[in-house]
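LOG
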Amino acid sequence: MAHLLGAEALHLEYPTRRIFDAVTVGLNDGDRIGVVGRNGDGKSTLLRLLAGTLEPDSGRVTRRGGIRLGMLDQADELHSERSVHEVVIGDIDEHVWAGDPKVRDVIAGLIADIPWEARVDDLSGGQRRRVALAALLIGDWDIIFLDEPTNHLDVEGIAWLAEHLKNRWPQNSGALVTVTHDRWFLDEICTATWEVHDRTIEPFEGGYAAYVLQRVERDRMAAASESKRQNLMRKELAWLRRGAPARTSKPKFRIDAANVLIENEPPIRDSVSLAQMAMQRLGKDVVDLENVSVSYPLPEQSAEGGRLEGSNHVLRDVTWRIAPGERTGILGVNGAGKSTLLNLVAGTLQPTSGRVKRGKTIKVAQLTQQLAELHDVWNDRVSDVLSRQKSSYVAGGKELTPSQLLERVGFKSAQLSTPVKDLSGGQKRRLQLLLILLSEPNVLILDEPTNDLDTDMLAAIEDLLDSFPGTLLVVSHDRYLIERVTDQQYAVMDGRLRHLPRGVDQYLELSSAALRNPRPDSASGGPLPEGSRSDRLDGISRKPTLSGAELRNAQKEFAAAGRKLDKLGHQVAELHTRIAEHDHSDYLTLASMSAELDELHDTTAKLETRWLELGELLGQ
């Protein structure tokens, strides 16, 4: 395996602190490295040192001759006056790039919905980020460095990026180093993990799941002061081992060692106790949405040049009955209507039609992306903010003070005297969530809660949410978080709410099928905008007209297919459980069960295709 790049005895320090001390690492052909660590420990700095954009105080970085290295930095360095076309393609002739399958795949996967000739200066921050990533990926590189590549990508975009990176180079060729807090992404693409901590880099084999196992083993031998972190990481490992079917049916680390470590670990959540507490706090009724639709006025240009008022239908005839203690994840592309749905639940938005029925005892709290909860305490010290709260709270069956809860989400005692405005982005985000939890709501809505949090803090926040005895609704593009803290998932697609018995995998399949067979009209009821992703796909078919008998038969088949899909989803879940609990040394039985699972997946895929076709015919 050829050596591509090496760093020897790197030393870097700033006037206030030392970042690295005698760090030595190397990259070989075929390496796929994920970099994790606390915010501020030097992950992005490491990438810049290895890329040569930052010089160390001592030590050296060497590269093999002729190596081509591309890097996506967190800093926005795009030329504002240039168009998207110029930034991504440059001076390459159209017949050249249009004939390159790799270039077409990158454009379709990342920027198909961005106008091709739009000025970069007119794009949103998320669009600029995707343009920068696309411009990097169409290049021919031996080494790629990615710093937070999943920021501003939705679930579909992250899945596409993972698949692209896995297939970008032949096996044992090229090298990838990525800094990201998206743990599903780390597990999907990485063969090794570097943890940056305490001025050094510690290597681990495998992706995030394997890193958690090895870190638990390391922490067990650490000093007693590390006991809190040990318990937290064992809980994280227990979920990785017991939780998502994909992880239990195809383990990515040593099953026997993992079972020994978690044999005395209790379940992640005591669902029965939490449900009883939720009923006591909420009663039987939470929020019921009955045939709810939401639309906004949409100005349209008439043929004579005047303006006519149309309407943009965001949600159509949505019925959703939220139960006490329900823990639900909401999926959907940007702009699908997820935030609109949450605002209906929170009561900050009224429907255009339909009815929202709210329980008398509900107390809703919403974690927004704007840090609105901190505006009134911006100039106050953290300790002063906490002093205004109750003296004690119960979390996970234990009575804790606000200071203890603050420590549980990663604050140190020295930070209590820091003004809120001087906290880092991640610290503000954690304080915001903690203040919401201290207000003791019984319905908690989280809108993209993972922003600015590193993997350790994400684990701590998830641990805190495990003991929340109320209804939890989460919108996030972080697949790992959705699977970790919620028990069921829904998707907002074409203005409607769809239950996903098989979770995120089912959503990605439906989303992919919708792209292959797009609807002729958008959710607004009007034609798709020019340059949209669906508009660029060929083969848009118009809905045929059915006779009375054909319509009745299609309706019956559509309903039967839906029931069959639910039944198949339960069978798949039961089979995953059987595989996870079976003796992993019994290869013959496991092979038979795996074949049965593949057959169920094939049947489900064929039935879902037919179900989607019928839905198109019936306008569902």
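LOG (cont.) second protein
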Amino acid sequence: MVEFSINNINVKAENGMTILDAAKSVGIDIPTLCHMKDLFPTGACRMCVVEVDGMRGLTPSCAFPVAEGMVVQTNSPRVRRARKTIVELLIENHPQDCLICVRNKNCELQDLSEKYAIREHRFAGEKKNHAIDISSPSIERDPAKCILCGRCVRTCNEIQKIGAIDFTNRGFRSNVTTPYNKGLNVSDCILCGQCILACPTAALREKSHSKEVINALTNKDKYCIVQIAPAVRASLGEEYNLPIGTNVTGQIVTGLRRLGFRKVFDTNFAADLTIMEESTELINRITSSGVLPMFTSCCPGWVKFVEQNNPEILNHISTCKSPHEMEGALLKTYYAKKMGLQPENIFVVSIMPCTVKKYESDRPELTEENMPDVDAVLTVRELVRIFNMAGIDFNGLPEDEFDNPLGVSTGAAAIFGTSGGVMEAALRTAYSKLTNQILPTLELNDLRGMSGVKEASIIINGKQINVAVVNGIGNVREIVKDVQEGKSKYHFIEVMACPGGCINGGGQPIHQKPEKIKKRMDVLYNIDTKSSIRMSHENPIVLKIYDEFFGEPNSLEAHRILHTSYIDRKSILRNNA
């Protein structure tokens, strides 16, 4: 431990701790733009500069360690002038269209402008001018709003380890872009949206489907149905200043009905359906010497990653559609027939914590007779904007229940929104099917948490089944390499592209607080614990649909409606390069 002074406060801190972290430990806030917790500091933006006695220049607090006897000032006139100048220069090279910007009132540059009382333009000169990249079906990139903090680059390169974007050029011409400045649609981007969560401005944002949804709701010929993913109910309340970790399922249902949706269903129902199909597929592969290990297919970012980088292992991925696509397909087949509706008149909207789901809903493989399973995908952020536009007072909404029959789900479905949840739910059902007994411990704690790779083993009928959960796409390459080389010890592997799973998806409320992820996870685990039915194969409506429509899991009809295929995008990208 070392002793030193910050703003005349005597502080004890661990040797090697940065000035920034030491200041936070005693409640002193130092502004940052480029800093990212747990990543090696760069000191690039200089917003965090402080004055250290004995040093001629100002010091970047995020990259400078504390020392015995050091005297630090974080709010001296010299420090304030430096920070204010940095913000002023950033603003002068910015579009300054705050009133029409999607990040208005949720922008770090805007917050800093207010904090340092910037009320005039002191600098004038040439501004950078870049075209907006709208080539991707999920993400829009506006380089004119980029402040070169580098957080998106570090997220893509160091956390996700994709490398779809990076810095190019120098000085005034510095820019963050894709290789050869081509569109995101022909880059290595998997559209996970983690860069959006990292971006302090609106340089990166989701491609909005709000207009399409609003138009459908006002079209009398459209029968609008909406479904919400498990992770949405655990995070949307944050946008209305509710305590982090508040379950707002009932209010969301009421709000969606007030928007005009005819039916409000739960994607959790389709998560149970996914487990029926995926666990059966796994059992068939294990018992009939099929291709192992089998990977889950719920995350379209992960599927896109394999198609672009390792198409030779596509036969290892489950052929099951993701839950919201299964539900959309079911709505336009079974439900349409049951209710006497024309499938082409049904407009299915998915409320997702994810940006890559927009890309997924647009895949030709998930379209039947020019009719997509899901017509539009809204992120949590987009739904909040629509609620606000409609004048809905979310905090004052009463709670309501999902519509039946596709609103009934189990606890196993709820945990789909967390890293490890799909695996946990699948093992509950696979174990029961193979042994006719209940898994001794439904909570598989080894598969929970934020570790990069989590693993477990269970004994089923005397055979040891090894499973792994990959938390974040940046941790998957060694797992894939072992599969390619035939050295993998696993039978079943879950991969979620976003660290933490869907609970931290690219379409969630924007935050920079890792503790939020844990609290969101707890919401879903609590739903599971309190559920009267906790295993997907015991969902009575799912069983009824198999009796009436599919016959059994993995039947020909189930494969036609609930399963899909994949393509080699690596060759396509190479040809477009």
